[in-house]
């Protein structure tokens, strides 16, 4: 299989505009993410897909590869445009605001497709258990519930499942925004109309579920810092 990584990057993030160009250590957030993905050595090709001249120039000026795309509602739509003429089998979507992603969870995502002999999985992604009440209730943390085989049932910014039966021990999981797509499923996704659930939650992978596609979730203990707010940036600066 030919496996590539694409980092979708837009400058005008709704909650924290310009976050990818903030300085983290000695480099910007987007350059840190790009270089860390390249250094895993897992991919035949790595590039940033952006509609921002600022981000495009930042990556190219630091020896990386970037492509310009049109404006899109979701990162998956942006990646679909970027890869439509590229020969590949699996596309890994690494969020530009996840600068601390490690090699092991990326290997786990790739392994999902190597073991999927019937090619029934459209998308694979990561989840990590949440234990703190504040983190569970934080709408910036997308929660996910799965069936017994690890396939996604639903994603939400609300607390799911609702803990009605207090005597029963419930586990909560955060969805980590790193995706691995079959290329043909990604291109199909980009042609599908957004439905009310996706629009309401602002969670793009709900579109796959609404159209009956299978999403495999892999549990990981990877603890990164997704930079959604200025407070997250400060946490990342302390970590680095």
Characterize the structure shown:
By secondary structure, this protein is of the alpha/beta class. Helix content is 31%, strand content 24%. It is built from nine helices and eleven strands. The strands form three sheets. A seven-stranded mixed beta sheet has the order 5-4-1-6-10-7-11, with helices on both faces. A two-stranded antiparallel ribbon has the order 2-3. The protein has a two-stranded antiparallel sheet with strand order 8-9. Helix 3 crosses helix 6. The longest helix is centred in the middle third of the chain and has 12 residues. It is globular, with a radius of gyration of 17 Å. The two termini are 34 Å apart. The model has no long low-confidence stretch (mean pLDDT 92). Keywords: Cytoplasm, Lipopolysaccharide biosynthesis, Nucleotidyltransferase, Transferase. Pathway: Nucleotide-sugar biosynthesis; CMP-3-deoxy-D-manno-octulosonate biosynthesis; CMP-3-deoxy-D-manno-octulosonate from 3-deoxy-D-manno-octulosonate and CTP: step 1/1. It catalyses: 3-deoxy-alpha-D-manno-oct-2-ulosonate + CTP = CMP-3-deoxy-beta-D-manno-octulosonate + diphosphate. InterPro entries: Cytidylyl_trans, KdsB, Nucleotide-diphossugar_trans. This is 3-deoxy-manno-octulosonate cytidylyltransferase.
